[in-house]
Structure formats: C-alpha cells, structure tokens
Amino acid sequence: MRQIIIQGRGGQGAQTAGNLLAAAFFAQGLQVQCFASYGGARRGTPVSSFLRISRQPIRVRCDIEQADAILCFDASLLEGRLLAAATAGTLVVVNSARDAAHFAALLPGRRVLPVDGLAMAREQGLGRIVNSALLGALARALGGLDLDVLTRTVVAQAPKLHEQNIAAVQAGWQAAETQLQAVAP
Fold first, then answer.
1. CA atoms of 10 and 18, how far apart (whole Å)
2. β-bridge mates for residue 69, sequence order
3. Run of H or E residues at 110
4. Which residues pair with residue 111 across a beta bridge?
5. Cα separation of 81 and 152, whole Å?
6. Strands lying side by side in the sheet with 46-54
7. What does the alpha-carbon distance between residue 43 and residue 25 come to, in Å, rounded to a whole number?
8. Helix or strand run (H / E) with residue 74
9. pLDDT per residue over 140-178, tens digit each?
10. What DSSP element (H or E) covers 184?
11. From the centroid of its chain, how far is CA 168?
C-alpha cells in the first residue's frame, strides 16, 4: 500500500488534488481511500488531503503517520507535523522555484523534488491554480500512474480550461522527468 499526504493552504486546491489523484488511480484499477483534514474553513489555513492506494482492499481507517510521498503546495509548510510523517525514503514534491540543492540543505536525507508549479500554471493560462502541474510531477516521480489516465481524469473532472490543464499536467510530468534523469546513475 502506498500512502500520500497532500498539504496546502485553503484555496490552493490540495483537497481537489487529492480527489483527482484518487480518481486517476481508481480509473487505473487500484483501490483508493481519500480523506481530508482542515482547520478553520477559510483561505490560507493549512489543509491536508490523505490518500492510500493499493491493489488490495484498504481496511485501515487512521491518519497517515508515515507517508511514501508528500505533495506540498507551499514550501513554507515543510515543517513540524508534515515532516514527522516523512522517512528517509519519502518522496517530497514541493511547489517551489528553488532548486533541489536548496532543499537538500534544508531537509537532509530526504528525497525532494522541487517543481515550479506556479510558473507552469501561469504559462498555461491557469493563473495561480497549480493542481494540474503538481499532479503531473508527483505522478511521474511516484510512478505507477499513466500520464494518459491522469490527463483523462483531470479533463473529466475539470469544469473548464481542459487544454490548459492537460498542458500543465504534461509540463509537471516533464519537469519531474528531467530532474529524475539528472540524478539517475
């Protein structure tokens, strides 16, 4: 079973991203469990989405204490409780214009993949909506989810701007691919 935490701030789309990722893995034939946690229901407060993925039925019903992957919409949230769920093998995909070296110094021993989702979203005409770009990057870095399945899911559930969302998913996927190839032996 894989366990993923998506962390953002209210209004950034972390909960929507969790739902989209769950729908994509489900469309690929896997069992999923997705639930959210948020404090005050207002913009800017921390919001978490939790996702479990498995080939077998998922019977566990508790919070995720050790994540296989973390998708962080705001680098300022990479602290405390969120990082307590990260082990040395946890993949951390973070929305940031900073490079991997910055995060290697900040989070030693963790596998961090920074992706400038904001720049990608703006480039594709999505403004500040970074979901699609970050989901593309996470899906590529995590593996196990086809790009076509993810893009079809995003299009099916996005109310508008289908072409822009597809382009953002592909840009995120490619950004992750480029970084992964750079560190491959």
1. 13
2. 4, 91
3. none
4. 91
5. 33
6. 31-38, 46-54, 2-9, 67-72, 86-95, 111-115
7. 28
8. none
9. 999 999 999 999 999 999 878 999 999 999 999 999 999
10. none
11. 13
By three-state DSSP, how is residue 1 classified? coil
Q: For 57-79, b where at least 16 C-beta lie within 10 A, e where not — what string? A: eeeeeeebeebbbbbbbbbebbe
What is the sign of the dihedral through the CA atoms of 134, 140, 143 and 146? Answer: positive
Q: Which residues contact 174 (CB under 8 A, 6 or more apart)?
A: 136, 140
Q: Are 136 and 114 in contact (CB under 8 A)?
A: no
Q: Could you tell me the two tokens for 155?
A: 């299009």
Question: Nearest CA to 81 among 48, 109, 110, 54?
Answer: 48
CA dihedral over 47, 53, 59, 64, signed as positive or negative: negative
For residues 30 and 53, the answer to whether their CB atoms sit within 8 Å is yes
Supply 174's token pair. Answer: 């490619």
Q: Are strands 31-38 and 67-72 parallel, antiparallel or unpaired?
A: unpaired
Number of H helices, E strands in the chain: 7, 6
Distance in angstroms (rounded) separating the CA atoms of residues 169 and 150: 8
pLDDT digit string, tens, across residues 11-64? 888 889 999 999 999 999 999 999 988 766 667 788 899 999 999 999 998 889
Q: Tokens for 133, please give them.
A: 């770009």
